[in-house]
Write a structure and sequence with these properties.
335 residues; mainly alpha; Hypothetical protein af1432; 4 strands; 5% strand; binds fe (ii) ion
Length: 335
């Protein structure tokens, strides 16, 4: 891929190098780029080294680099991928500008950014830490909005180890997948997708307030320990309320993700039709996301097996939703 003003770049170069857009270049430290830079020599149809990473640039070099970038002649090697992607993890909106990223790279960078944002917010649930998390969730929904099939990229990358951040990622992806599946053929508004995604991602944030020794304890919990865990849906909601975030999806996902159709859930022990659609999706996303991850007290289950177990539990989980998930995983529609 190339910019419209750029020269014809041979395909083999495209495989080993990224062509840098202006947005990406301007996000680097201007006088000390963190990656090696290459320029395209049209006459020889090849790339030649221009600037070594960490090198201090003169004003003239900064101008030269900028001009090469504008004409589509500036490249970075894929061997610098880890530095380049680390950079994008911290400024995720850049992935939307970079048509050179392959889809799996885009997904991997997005996952790392989201988990990093979640962990920071779990540690410090305040507005300045929330804002970049919100921004990155909007990048995630934009990625899906451009092409809904990209949800498969993320479904193939569900995480098989448990941590609060990884679990939040799994809940986000499975929740979004279910929502897109339910709304297939219907009219899903962008705003609804944005809100639901944020709600699925943060529904368990109250767990950050539960002592770690309870969360990491192998085996079953004592009654007084369980009493603490039961508080976390309400804590999730309260954390968001403190930030003046109070919309239906957020309340439903956080307060209802442990409610069950037969009334055996918590905290309110509501039943069947009392549980919202977002709440039902949130419940499956949370349970499924946990079942497929290795936790202190349980091995990771196979994706298809976990989905089938949920589908067999129609007393507690919405059968239509679990049916979608089980069918998709059985036919590997998502993998
Ligand atoms: Fe939870």
């Amino acid at each position: 891929m190339m910019t419209s003003s750029g020269p014809a770049v041979p395909a083999n170069i495209d495989e080993e190098y990224y062509q840098i857009s202006e947005e990406i270049l301007s996000s680097f430290p201007k006088f000390r780029p963190p990656v090696d830079l290459f320029r395209f020599k049209e006459a020889a149809l090849t790339l030649v080294p221009l600037i070594r990473k960490g090198q201090r640039l003169t004003n003239e070099q900064v101008e030269e680099v900028h001009a090469l970038c504008l004409s589509g002649d500036l490249f970075v090697s894929r061997s610098d991928h880890s530095i380049y992607s680390e950079h994008m993890v911290k400024q995720l909106d850049l992935v939307l500008q970079d048509s050179n990223l392959k889809e799996p790279e885009l997904a991997d960078i997005c996952i790392r950014a989201l988990i990093m944002r979640y962990e920071a917010f779990a540690e410090q649930p305040v507005r300045p830490v929330f804002d970049p998390l919100y921004k990155d969730i909007m990048v995630y929904t934009e990625i899906l909005w451009q092409d809904r099939h990209r949800i498969k990229l993320f479904m193939r990358r569900l995480l098989r180890e448990y941590s609060l951040g990884k679990h939040a990622f799994n809940s986000l992806i499975v929740g979004t997948w279910l929502l897109l599946r339910v709304m297939e053929g219907g009219e899903l508004r962008r705003r609804d997708l944005d809100r639901a995604a944020l709600a699925f991602f943060l529904q368990d944030i109250g767990m950050a307030k539960i002592p770690a020794f309870i969360l990491n304890k192998p085996g079953s919990l004592k009654a007084e320990e369980f009493d603490k865990v039961v508080l976390h849906p309400t804590l999730s909601y309260k954390i968001m309320q403190k930030l003046d975030l109070a919309f239906d999806e957020l309340a439903q996902a956080s307060l209802e993700h442990h409610e069950r159709l037969d009334g055996t859930g918590y905290p309110q022990k509501i039943k069947a039709s009392q549980i919202s659609r977002i709440g039902r999706i949130a419940a499956i996303a949370d349970s499924f996301g946990a079942m497929i991850a290795k936790r202190p007290h349980a091995e990771a289950k196979d994706l298809s097996q976990a989905a089938q177990e949920l589908a067999a539990d129609q007393k507690r989980y919405d059968g239509q939703l679990t049916g979608y998930l089980a069918a998709a995983l059985l036919t590997e529609n998502v993998g």
